[in-house]
Specification:
The chain is of the alpha/beta class. The chain folds into two domains: 2-57, Uridine Diphospho-n-acetylenolpyruvylglucosamine Reductase, domain 2 (2-Layer Sandwich), CATH 3.30.43.10; 64-131, Uridine Diphospho-n-acetylenolpyruvylglucosamine Reductase, domain 3, CATH 3.30.465. The chain is built from four helices and eight strands. The chain has helices at residues 23-29, 82-89, 107-112, 120-123; strands at residues 2-5, 12-18, 35-38, 54-57, 64-68, 73-76, 133-136, 142-145. Strand 1 (2-5) and strand 2 (12-18) form a beta hairpin. The chain is globular, with a radius of gyration of 16 Å. Bound molecules: flavin-adenine dinucleotide. Flavin-adenine dinucleotide binds at residues 7, 36-43, 47-48, 58, 78, 100-102, 105-106, 108-110, 112-113, 115-116.
Length: 158
């Protein structure tokens, strides 16, 4: 068990924390009692905690899967941090379109909380720069979600 807390520090609770390195490991790590994903733990609330139960910390899922220099479109795993993205892509002239007040957050955490930056009123939230995502849901299915994708979920991790 590992003692974990949210950034607000309201509660510290023992969790069965795992650090999967691949999508397959994530699938194998799902607990029948329920699992909670966690990024860099920068949420002020307790949504990335699961007292006495499984927490899947996704920071080792930090690979880039593809980048289109013409459009600035990146495919990556959910554990990539904005700090990592900025370090790697700012020198090439690219910066995340929406960033919260800290770069020590993961792409997965930004999507799950749909974070906003200082230009929230003009540019919207993180979702506005997400074309699509693949999500492993609790029963083991992999759902592909995008504004144009309304069909039934299907598939497994490639
Ligand atoms: C100094 C500071 C400044 C901040 N400024 C802002 C701001 O300006 N605007 C703003 O909107 N927020 C802000 N935040 C909040 C922060 O941006 C969000 O809480 C963000 O979601 C944290 O990302 P994380 O990777 O740490 O996720 P965590 O806190 O670890 O998790 C957040 C949520 O994402 C889910 N999650 C994480 N990874 C995955 C995954 N791989 N798959 C599925 N679900 C996942 C978790 O289950 C949880 O529900 C700030 C936080 C701090 C500490």
């Amino acid at each position: 068990m590992t003692l974990l807390q949210g950034w607000g520090g309201q509660r510290r609770v023992e969790c069965d924390e795992r650090h999967p390195e691949t999508a397959r490991e994530v699938a194998r790590s799902l607990s029948p009692q329920g699992s909670v994903a966690r990024g860099l733990g920068r949420s002020y609330g307790d949504q990335a905690l699961n007292e006495g139960r499984r927490v899947l910390t996704c920071t080792r899922l930090d690979r880039y899967l593809g980048f289109d220099e013409a459009t600035g479109t990146l495919r990556c795993e959910a554990g990539v941090s904005l700090a990592q993205l900025i370090a790697d892509f700012a020198p090439r002239g690219f910066f995340p379109a929406i960033t919260p007040g800290t770069k020590f957050v993961t792409v997965g955490g930004c999507i799950a909380n749909d974070v906003h930056g200082k230009a929230h009123h003009a540019q919207g939230t993180f979702a506005t720069c997400v074309d699509a995502l693949r999500l492993l849901v609790a029963d083991g299915r992999v759902v592909t979600a995008s504004p144009s994708c309304s069909g039934p979920p299907s598939g497994a991790w490639a």
